[in-house]
Each structure stands twice: as C-alpha cells, then as structure tokens.
Design brief:
CATH class of the largest domain: Alpha Beta
Structural class: alpha/beta
Largest sheet: 5 strands, parallel
Number of helices: 9
Order of helices and strands: EHEEHEHEHHHHHH
Shape: elongated
CATH architecture of the largest domain: 3-Layer(aba) Sandwich
CATH superfamily of the largest domain: Response regulator
C-alpha cells in the first residue's frame, strides 16, 4: 500500500517545519514542504495543506503550486472567513477548512476525514450551509421559530439600534462593553454580507415576517458556483 503523503505550501519555512513535525507525530503520513523539486512527486491520492491569508484567488493559488486534482485543505490565517468565501473554496476543490487558531488535533481530524470520507465538515462549513439554507428557504422557518437568522441577543441589539441607541447605550442595557457591541455588529455585517445597519435591518425585518414553508429539496452545491 502506498504511503500517505501530505504537502505543505504557503507557510513560512520555520512554521512549516514545526507544523510538519507535529502532523507527522500525530498521523501516519509522510509530511513534506512543497517546492519546485518535489512537485512531480504529488499523486492524486496525496493531500495538500494550503495556508491562506484573508482574501485570495484560489485559481491563482492553485496555478502557483501546480495543484489541480489533489485533495486540498485550507489552513486559514488572519481575517474571518465569510460564508461566501467558504462556498468559493468548496466549489474550487477545498475539502476542509481549518483555522490556524484551532488545536493541531483539529487539523489531524480534518486530514483523516478528507482521506477517509472526502470532506471534513466542521463548524465553519456547517454554519455556512445552515445560513444558506435558512436564507434560501430550504429549511422551514417553523422548524426554528421566528427570527431564525439571528439569536436572541442579536435580535435585541438590532431592535435597540433601530430605535437610535448608540453602541454604548446598547451595551449598558445588555451588560456588554461598547467594544463588544461594535464587534458583534461587524460580525453580523460580515455574516449577512451587508454594508451597513439599514441593510442589516431590512434582512432582519424580512426574516421576522417571512413564513416560508420549505419543500423537500436541498440546495444543489452547483448553484453556489
């Protein structure tokens, strides 16, 4: 049986050496740093871990590394990952998305899952799919109750902001700091892919008023391309 091979790319030399050693200790795979000398050694059954920093063009990353058919894991470093970016990566061939803040065991689980099952569905991918299904109406709103896109704290924050309350005033009512309130709103804008509060409030109102009855279908991933 051919030995499993893992190739790391996009990492700094020192960090790549440390990461390769940690992965090798916790898995049975041979771990290599991808370079011009060993590109030809990559087989279709091998796995490539790509470190990505913020926004990126997956096509250019793949072309740069000579990666086409191999299984790929995205190792995210830096900015938060939006739902749109999750779908872009999945439709471009990424089989798992792991953050550099995750424990090394999370990365090893992703490696094993990609080898054995083809994908690794952690909270990043599952959350993105759930948000998509809720927004598209693929899941019944009745199954989740009203305001399915937002939790109770987010609903309260949006309602207070719609009344003209400042972040500091909202924080006083919810026993949170102004900094935390601003951070939550920034995350809401990112998650809902909207530029400002008026756009967010329209999404909230639509979510509150809709009573969509879902059919028995599930969204085709090809529609996300």
């Amino acid at each position: 049986m051919r030995e499993r091979k893992i190739f790391l790319t996009g990492f700094g030399k020192l960090y790549a050496d440390v990461l390769a050693m940690e992965i090798a200790i916790k898995s049975s795979a041979q771990v290599n740093i991808l370079n011009e000398m060993n590109k030809h050694e990559i087989g279709t059954d091998d796995l490539i871990i790509i470190q990505l920093n913020g926004e990126f063009s997956l096509r250019s990353e793949s072309a740069l590394c000579g990666i086409k058919d191999q299984k790929k894991i995205a190792y995210l470093n830096g900015s938060p990952c939006s739902d749109k970016l999750v779908f872009e990566m999945m439709n471009s061939g990424i089989r798992a998305i792991v953050r550099n803040t995750d424990d090394i065991c999370e990365l090893v689980r992703a490696i094993d899952s990609v080898y054995n099952e083809g994908y690794y569905l952690n909270d990043l991918i599952s959350s993105a799919m759930l948000h998509y299904c809720k927004k598209s109406g693929a899941l019944s709103r009745d199954a989740f109750g009203p305001g399915t896109l937002f939790n109770e704290r987010e609903i309260r924050m949006i309602e207070l902001r719609s009344l003209g309350k400042t972040a500091a005033e909202i924080g006083d009512e919810l026993y949170l700091s102004k900094k935390t309130i601003d951070k939550i709103f920034c995350e809401l804008y990112r998650r809902m892919e909207c530029p400002n509060f008026p756009s967010l409030f329209r999404i909230y109102q639509d979510d509150k008023s809709r009573s969509v009855k879902a059919g028995v279908y599930f969204p085709d991933l090809n529609s996300l391309k």
